[in-house]
Amino acid sequence: MASSEEDGGGNGAVEEKENGKKRRLGALATAWLIFYNVAMTAGWLVLGIAMVRFYIQKGTHRGLFRSVQKTLKFFQTFALLEVVHCAVVHTSVLVTGVQVSSRIFMVWFIAHSIKQIQNEESVILFLVVWTVTEITRYSFYTFNLLNHLPYFIKWARYNFFIILYPAGVAGELLTIYAALPYVKKTGMFSLRLPNKYNVSFDYYYFLIIVMFSYVPLFPQLYFHMLRQRRRVLHGEVIVEKDD
Question: Which of 58, 125, 214, 223 has its CA 20 to 30 A from that of 170?
Answer without folding.
Answer: 58
